[in-house]
């Protein structure tokens, strides 16, 4: 199988990123948590952590991370309701724990009496192995979030339920973690019988109103896949020096609020909320994210952003390969639509007014398309952004307490 040759890192961009970080973080304030793995963080804060490996039907080896209570807790061996958490694009299981026991959702759920499982999608930091392929192989990266939905989620859910001996679990997802669920629930509806309820944070299905500068740029390039891959990476999402320069021109103006983070892909895509972001948390986050993604994932999202065209039409559709190959693969010129009316699991949507990815109007549209929406809940803070669902200073009181309260209904 062919080996891929990646560009050498652009040293000037690395220097720029370091300078930007120093504007917000004292040089001596680098936190040791930035270098710890998810389970090392869990163990550091005195929780019982477990590593589980799962092999998907197409050979990807995924890691699951489990929290079963605090160390020396008397109820650590008691059967508890299961909370399964899936992170968003370019994030891993660490997204739920890097902010510490008081604000990390994994810890909060564990303290509330849940058996907590953290998923890692293929291609991310903890799930980069395959039974026969290497990450240097083109074939390894031939997946979108569609495959995560129809392959990764079923494998992880089956393992969790088999390990615990339970029949159902709660599903909590952020961003792409919600997209994965919507794919699974529509394409493999039998798995809905294994879900008690689903809680969608910054839900992403319809993307016609996305305001992220990076996603808008990629949407304009969807007609030129060659150009797009030249900018953001051939198979793995690894923006080239040339691509970074294009992105910088869009949002790295000296007077832009996003300027201090313009060298970081995570903030380029999602935006930044200065008031709710804990600056001391930044070096820890940058030690864990971006955690990896395929170029095809980015292209698929970009196709959803490009609404109104003949192929996408602003709908939540499968990957668009072009008219001819669509006809061969799907039997139609247009990719199939994910029929969200098939979803009968109660779905609770949680959204922010200042979200660059999950725009309010797109969330409203999603709510009308779901077969059994449980509710739609705006986070009561006007500037709440896409990353605030994970790392806002007041995320527990603004969001997590509400979710935990709703979970008691089931």
TrEMBL record:
Active-site residues annotated for this sequence: 175, 355, 386
InterPro entries: AB_hydrolase_1 (IPR000073), AB_hydrolase_fold (IPR029058), AB_hydrolase_lipase (IPR006693), Lipase_euk (IPR025483)
Pfam families found in the cross-reference section: Abhydro_lipase (PF04083), Abhydrolase_1 (PF00561)
Molecular function per GO: hydrolase activity, acting on ester bonds
Residues of the AB hydrolase-1 domain: 103-221
Top-level taxon of the source organism: Eukaryota
Keyword Electron transport: no
Keywords of the record: Glycoprotein, Hydrolase, Lipid degradation, Lipid metabolism, Signal
Record bears the keyword Hydrolase: yes
Family in the record: Belongs to the AB hydrolase superfamily. Lipase family.
Protein name: Lipase
């Amino acid at each position: 199988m062919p080996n891929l040759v990646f560009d050498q890192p652009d040293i000037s961009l690395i220097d720029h990123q370091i300078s930007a970080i120093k504007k917000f973080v004292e040089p001596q304030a680098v936190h040791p948590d930035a270098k710890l793995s998810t389970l090392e963080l869990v163990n550091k804060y005195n929780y019982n952590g477990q590593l589980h490996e799962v092999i998907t039907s197409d050979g990807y080896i995924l890691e699951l991370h489990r929290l079963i209570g605090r160390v020396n807790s008397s109820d650590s061996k008691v059967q508890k309701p299961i909370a399964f958490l899936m992170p968003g694009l370019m994030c891993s299981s660490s997204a739920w724990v890097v902010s510490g026991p008081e604000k990390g959702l994994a810890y909060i759920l564990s303290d509330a009496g849940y058996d907590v499982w953290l998923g890692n999608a293929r291609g991310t930091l903890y799930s980069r192995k395959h039974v026969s392929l290497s990450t240097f192989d083109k074939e390894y990266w031939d997946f979108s979030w569609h495959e995560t939905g129809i392959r990764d989620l079923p494998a992880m859910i089956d393992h969790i339920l088999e390990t615990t001996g339970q029949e159902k679990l709660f599903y909590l997802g952020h961003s792409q973690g919600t997209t994965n669920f919507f794919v699974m629930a529509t394409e493999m509806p039998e798995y809905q019988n294994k879900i008690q309820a689903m809680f969608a944070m910054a839900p992403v299905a319809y993307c016609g109103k996305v305001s992220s500068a990076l996603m808008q740029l990629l949407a304009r390039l969807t007609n030129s896949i060659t150009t797009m891959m030249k900018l953001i990476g051939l198979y793995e999402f690894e923006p080239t020096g040339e691509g970074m320069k294009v992105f910088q021109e869009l949002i790295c103006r000296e007077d832009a609020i996003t300027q201090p983070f313009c060298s970081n892909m995570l903030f380029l895509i999602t935006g930044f909320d200065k008031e709710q972001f804990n600056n001391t948390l930044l070096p820890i986050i940058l030690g864990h994210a971006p955690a990896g993604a395929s170029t095809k994932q980015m292209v698929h999202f970009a196709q959803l952003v490009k609404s109104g065209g003949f192929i996408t039409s602003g709908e939540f559709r499968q990957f668009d390969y072009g008219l001819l190959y669509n006809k061969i693969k799907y039997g139609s010129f247009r990719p199939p639509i994910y029929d969200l009316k098939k979803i009968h699991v109660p779905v609770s949507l949680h959204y922010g007014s200042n979200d660059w990815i999950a725009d309010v109007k797109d969330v409203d549209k999603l709510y009308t398309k779901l077969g059994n929406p449980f509710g739609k809940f705006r986070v009561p803070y006007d500037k709440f952004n896409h990353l605030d669902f994970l790392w806002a200073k007041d995320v527990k009181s603004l969001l997590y307490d509400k979710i935990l309260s709703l979970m008691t209904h089931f």
